[in-house]
Amino acid sequence: MQKSRNQHIHIVYVEDEPNIAQLLVSGLGLFGITVHPVFMSAEALLEKYGQPEFHQADLLFFDIRLPRMTGLELARELRARGETRPFVLVSAWPSPTQSELEAIQARFLPKPFDFPDVIQTIQELVNKR
After folding, report:
1. How far out from the chain centre does Cα 90 lie?
2. Distance CA 48, CA 54 (A)
3. CB within 8 A of 33, min separation 6: which ones?
4. Which residue of 13, 46, 73, 116 has the fewest C-beta atoms within 10 A of its own C-beta?
5. So what's the pLDDT on residue 129?
6. Which residue has the higher pLDDT, 129 or 4?
7. What pLDDT score was predicted for residue 2?
8. What is the DSSP-derived secondary structure letter of residue 111?
9. What's the CA gap between 123 and 129, in Å, rounded?
10. Taking the CB of residue 73, how many other CB atoms lie within 10 A of it?
């Protein structure tokens, strides 16, 4: 699915820190990227997994350090359910190993966000689809 510059990119985001979530929503919105819905936990996303707002997303963005189920565990669960869309994992903590990222076909981006890098990664992954 090739997205032209004037087509919206939609992202689902799981982040337990509201201020960080709002930063990403606002920052990416300036570039025509919609971040919606934002879930506060992996479990909340899994409860809504079959809903239409979830299925319009081009990419899934997860914080790694979440309460209870981590972003890595969420990514594994979604891949086990057959999810094929790109995943981006983010954290202020060290990156998962390359083999962990390859196993779930995901990219890692460090926090705090470098918006040019975030946008480039999103566009690259969405355009690969």
Report:
1. 8
2. 7
3. 8, 9, 10, 11, 119, 122
4. 116
5. 77
6. 129
7. 47
8. S
9. 10
10. 15
Contact 42, 62 (CB under 8 A): yes
The Cα-based distances of 30 to 22, 27, 52 in angstroms read 13, 6, 24
Residue 13 to residue 45: CA distance in whole angstroms:
9
Cα separation, 52 vs 76, in Å, equals 22
Q: Where are the domains of the chain?
A: 9-128
Sign of torsion over alpha carbons 17, 123, 84, 50 = positive
Topology at the third CATH level for domain 9-128: Rossmann fold (3.40.50)
DSSP structure class, residue 74:
H
Q: What is the pLDDT of residues 79-95, one digit of tens each?
A: 999 999 999 999 998 89
pLDDT digits 0-9 by tens, 26-59: 999 999 999 999 999 999 999 999 888 788 899 9
Closest CA to 69 of 11, 13, 14, 12: 14
What was the pLDDT predicted at 99?
Answer: 96
Phi, psi at residue 30, to the nearest 5°? -65, -20
